[in-house]
Amino acid sequence: MKFRPLQDRVLIRRIESDEKTAGGIIIPDTAKEKPQEGEVVSVGPGVRTEDGKVHPLDVKAGDRVLFGKWSGSEVKLDNEELIIMKESDILGVLEGSASAKRKAA
């Protein structure tokens, strides 16, 4: 199914966290919190300014982003749970590869 968010909305897929901590402790499903990190699946065209021009969004499909714990609305499309939120609810974009982050830690 194709889905295109409207205006300044963004469709995000949560990125699941690791099953183990850095020390090797396995975290059960019941103790896990929902991740606050996700991948942008689709973005809207942008927000329309007062003079009628469309201001494009700063994020694009494929970006890894951080968002607030209670941000957005959860939806289910093609049996996949996704989140729709405004671009202003996104806290920041993660840059660089995941392997580089693990080496630094």
Verbal overview:
By secondary structure, this protein is mainly beta. It has one domain (9-96): 10 Kd Chaperonin, Protein Cpn10, Chain O (Roll), CATH 2.30.33. It contains one helix and eight strands. The strands form two sheets. A six-stranded antiparallel beta sheet has the order 6-7-1-2-5-8, with no helix packed on it. A hairpin with a 5-residue loop joins strand 3 (47-48) and strand 4 (54-55). The longest helix is centred in the C-terminal third of the chain and has 7 residues, at 98-104. It is elongated. The N and C termini lie far apart (39 Å). The model is unreliable at 99-105 (pLDDT under 50).
Task: Kindly summarize this structure in a few lines.
By secondary structure, this protein is mostly beta strands. It has one domain: 10 Kd Chaperonin, Protein Cpn10, Chain O, CATH 2.30.33.
For the record, give the distance between the C-alpha atoms at the N and C termini, rounded to a whole number.
39 Å
List the strand order in the largest sheet.
6-7-1-2-5-8
Q: Which CATH class applies here? A: Mainly Beta
Work out the number of β strands: 8
Query: What shape does the CA trace take?
Result: elongated
Q: Give the fraction of residues assigned to helices.
A: under 10%
Mean pLDDT across residues? 82
Structural class: mainly beta
> How many domains, as an integer?
1
